């Protein structure tokens, strides 16, 4: 019985230690201000989509009112509206890993 409980606890804990997946199609930037519905990334002001999803460094969703005013971010822009619709707050290791990624050429 104890052996089964041990394995059950181990299997359920494994996803907690998995590295999060950040999509390839996005942009790296420095968040400089956030006043929803607008955010400033790298001295450019972007509008946010109504369904903006903000992921913290632990990959949990963050409420829009709790977005930090300054942080390294990876963000995605909606193709049709040009609004930011997903935003990841990054730690230093993730920033360096993203900078090492090969560049993706946009095709039109």
How much of the sequence is in beta strands? 35-45%
CATH architecture: Beta Barrel
Largest sheet: 5 strands, mixed, barrel
What would you report as the Rg, rounded to the nearest angstrom? 17 Å
Overall shape: it is globular
Query: What is the third-level CATH name, the topology?
Result: OB fold (Dihydrolipoamide Acetyltransferase, E2P)
**How many domain modules?**
1
Terminal CA distance reads 59 Å
| Contiguous helical run count | 2
Model regions low in confidence, pLDDT < 50 over at least 5 residues: none
Write out the strand line-up for the largest beta sheet, numbering strands in chain order: 1-2-3-6-5
Give helix % range.
10-25%
| Quaternary structure classification | single chain
> Class by helix and strand content?
alpha+beta
Task: Describe the protein in words.
By secondary structure, this protein is an alpha+beta fold. The chain has one domain (20-100): Beta Barrel (OB fold (Dihydrolipoamide Acetyltransferase, E2P)). It is 19% helix and 37% strand. It is built from 2 helices and 6 strands; from the N terminus they run H-E-E-E-E-E-E-H. Strands 1-2-3-6-5 form a 5-stranded mixed barrel. The radius of gyration is 17 Å and the shape is globular. It starts with a helix and ends in an 8-residue tail after the last helix. The relative contact order is 0.20. The mean pLDDT is 86.
